[in-house]
Design a protein that fits this description.
342 residues; alpha+beta; 2 domains; eight-stranded antiparallel sheet; eight-stranded antiparallel β-barrel
Length: 342
């Protein structure tokens, strides 16, 4: 509960009280009768670092004559690990931890912002002013009820400031994956030891990509896994550390949806590495990887979803014995849970 409240506070602190209206939505509104224009408007909340209305401008807005902005402020032109040996599994794990912390911090920050960000419909008074911004960056305030189609020439977007108590939120849009995506997941994967036994080790997964549609997307990612377990070297049992990692390109497809639950498939191709610290030293191998599986999502907000992923990967494998051949492959199952941010 406390963690959720902290994340919500972080997210809300990065969000402004201005809401972007697309040019297509403005064109639709301009065709409606003046008294009904504020009944249902699709908006996307802007961030504080991307807001079109700064604090000074918002402070100069006031109530008066049915409009509540400064009449002298209607139009503006805006032109302007020391102990780890290099190449060992321990050194690779140390690097992976640093990268993982950065990826996790990005995931928590983005999830907090996008989880709190409003993307849906609002109801406002007909006297609500809307800021119109054209292709050249010129800005002009117009009352919603006075908006004409001719006002929208070269306009790229509009902005509604939240200035009144009757700024009503009517509901968020359902999950919309279109655009950039960021995935961060943690879980477990099968990692092999020199004893030829595969055990469940700690695993992670991070990916960055683009979804041209709500159902299909492409991304690039990194999936590390680590296991510390007894191994066997020259018939002597000893504790050893194995680190597996792969870089991949991924295609995903989400054909099924039932209310807030979504089901999809993913496939990946890439290159993988295995490093193992054994009693006689460190050794490793590498090679192409391929994999795929199924995924389930529960949409949290329009831009945030909880993802459960289960799949198999065909990865490089180190054979048992320090002098054994290193060129072989094995199947590694994995299951991870995390967030998809869009």
């Amino acid at each position: 509960m406390a963690l959720g409240s902290c994340l919500l506070a972080v997210g809300q602190g990065c969000l402004s009280q201005s809401y972007e209206v697309s040019s297509a939505e403005l064109a639709r509104i301009a065709t409606l009768p003046g008294e009904t224009r504020g009944e249902r408007i699709q908006v996307v909340q802007q961030t504080t670092f991307g807001s079109d209305i700064d604090e000074e401008e918002q402070e100069r807005m006031y109530w008066g004559g049915g409009l509540y902005y400064d009449p002298n402020y209607l139009e503006l032109d805006d032109d302007d690990d020391d102990d780890a040996n290099p190449g060992s599994a321990a050194a690779a794990v140390a690097v992976a931890v640093v990268v993982g912390v950065v990826a996790a911090t990005a995931a928590v920050s983005l999830a907090a912002v996008e989880g709190a960000r409003y993307d849906g419909w609002v109801r406002v008074d007909g006297s609500q002013p809307v800021l119109l911004i054209d292709e050249r960056g010129n800005r002009r305030w117009v009352a919603l009820e006075a908006l004409e189609p001719s006002d929208l020439e070269d306009v790229t977007r509009g902005v509604l400031p939240e200035m009144r108590e009757d700024f009503d939120y009517l509901g968020r849009r359902p999950l919309d994956r279109r655009g950039m995506l960021y995935q961060f997941e943690l879980g477990s994967a099968h990692v092999a030891s020199s004893a030829d036994d595969a055990a469940w080790g700690f695993a992670g997964r991070v990916a960055l990509g683009y979804m041209p549609t709500r159902q299909f997307g492409l991304s690039v990612g990194w999936a590390p896994s680590v296991l510390e377990a007894p191994g066997r070297d020259l018939n002597v049992t000893s504790e050893e550390l194995t680190f597996e990692s792969r870089l991949f390109m991924q295609a995903e497809y989400w054909p099924l949806a039932f209310r807030r639950l979504h089901a999809g498939l993913y496939a990946e191709l890439g290159y993988g590495w295995v490093l193992r610290d054994e009693a006689l030293g460190s050794r490793g191998t590498s090679g192409p990887v391929a994999g795929g599986g199924i995924a389930l999502q529960i949409d949290w907000t329009t831009r945030l979803a909880l993802t459960l992923r289960s799949g198999l990967a065909f990865v490089p494998h180190l054979e048992a014995g320090f002098g054994a051949a290193a060129e072989s492959r094995r199947i590694a199952p994995a299951i991870t849970l995390g967030v998809g941010i869009y």
